[in-house]
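Trying the structure run again after the queue cleared.
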Amino acid sequence: MLSCKEFTHQSSRMVDNEELTFMEKLNSRIHMFMCKHCRHYHNQSELVASVAKHLDCGDAPDQEIDQAVAQMKKFSDNPTD
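Done. Tokens:
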């Protein structure tokens, strides 16, 4: 099984849409299933990447940005399993 440190590297690659081998994907999914902290980290990373994509293009309406910020605050206040 992947260590948490190894998982964070894999997670970054997944968020960046890099190609992963079948075994890398499988090991990452297993680790996320077993480790709530890494699952939370991955979910937040995807959310941040999504918000950054909109901000970089300048095409996100203020309401959408406000919703994303509220969702990030919700995750940081009460992480889900």
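The chain has a mean pLDDT of 84. Worth checking whether this holds up in the mutant runs.
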